[in-house]
């Protein structure tokens, strides 16, 4: 994986975890964090750049969903 791609994945991973920490409900928060960690661990050995790009886009969409959820929760 290229260095810029690795950095992008790590930034996205941290952003997802950070946003998930904002869930007020314990069950929602722990579920989201567990799913994020599991998904990234499951896909850590993927080398195909097209598959990586597809997974990045999916993760970005999920980050946007979490961020919208936080707006309604506050």
Largest sheet: none
Which structural class best describes the helix and strand composition? mainly alpha
Shape: elongated
**Measured on Cα atoms, how large is the radius of gyration?**
13 Å
Mean pLDDT: 90
Description:
The N and C termini lie far apart (38 Å). α1 (3-20) packs antiparallel against α2 (26-42) and α1 runs parallel beside α3. With 74 residues, the protein is mostly helical. It has 3 helices and no strands. It is elongated and about 35 Å long. It has helices at 3-20, 26-42, 49-73. The longest helix has 25 residues, at 49-73. The mean pLDDT is 90. Helices cover 81% and strands 0% of the residues.
Topology diagram in text:
Elements: H1 3-20, H2 26-42, H3 49-73
Helix pairs in contact: 1-2, 1-3
Brief characterization of the structure:
This protein is an all-alpha fold and 74 residues long.
Tags for this model:
single chain; 74 residues; mainly alpha; 3 helices; elongated
